[in-house]
Write a structure and sequence with these properties.
This protein is 80% helix and 0% strand. It has 10 helices and no strands. Helix 4 packs across helix 5.
């Protein structure tokens, strides 16, 4: 019986390593109320990706859609006209209505489950923005943390999004949640 060399086992975990590196870079500022609000504004992107990929039935679209989401965040923050969260919610509303009108929410359990995820995780982000920041911090952190759990479940079941994305996202989500709670 041959064993996989250690360097290949490490290389196979590239999504987790990338997620850890990115989340450590992103975590700066999580201790401030503005930083927490920033994380609340981008949290809806994560369940939106699941919803869109489930709607398209194209797991290969996961990473390109994440890239597009990051581009939207950077562009909107640069021009400072509208919150990225508002744009992500608008896109989610369009996708949800499209699925409802097309009957997909009724007949496709995967799309329906992703719609619930969008509402729950996105709802935690919205709630975190409207309540007192001391409470909002924990709601936003809960959204990030439980989305990390969502990622692990999807990774384990090998469903909806690319496995590499689910692994990457789980690491990012848990580290960001910890940074928000610990005020790093």
């Amino acid at each position: 019986m041959t064993t996989t060399p250690w360097y290949r086992r490490i290389a196979a975990r590239w999504p987790a390593a990338l997620g850890l590196g990115m989340s450590l870079l992103m975590a700066g500022g999580a201790g401030t109320d503005d930083g927490m609000r920033g994380f609340a504004e981008i949290l809806p992107l994560l369940p939106l990706l699941y919803l869109v990929v489930a709607t398209l039935e194209r797991r290969r679209a996961t990473w390109p859609l994440l890239g597009a989401g990051f581009a939207v965040i950077f562009l909107l923050r640069a021009v400072d006209l509208i919150s990225p969260g508002a744009v992500f919610w608008a896109v989610a509303l369009v996708v949800l209505v499209w699925n409802a009108v097309g009957g997909r929410l009724r007949r496709d359990g995967t799309v329906r489950l992703q719609a619930v995820g969008m509402l729950v995780f996105g709802g935690l982000a919205l709630a975190g923005l409207v309540v007192d920041p001391a409470v909002g911090r924990y709601l936003v952190a809960a959204g990030w943390f439980f989305h990390g759990v969502w990622d692990v479940v999807h990774l384990t079941l090998n469903r909806v999004v690319a496995r590499s994305f689910a692994e990457w996202c789980a690491v990012v989500d848990v580290v960001v949640a910890a940074a928000i709670v610990l005020r790093l």
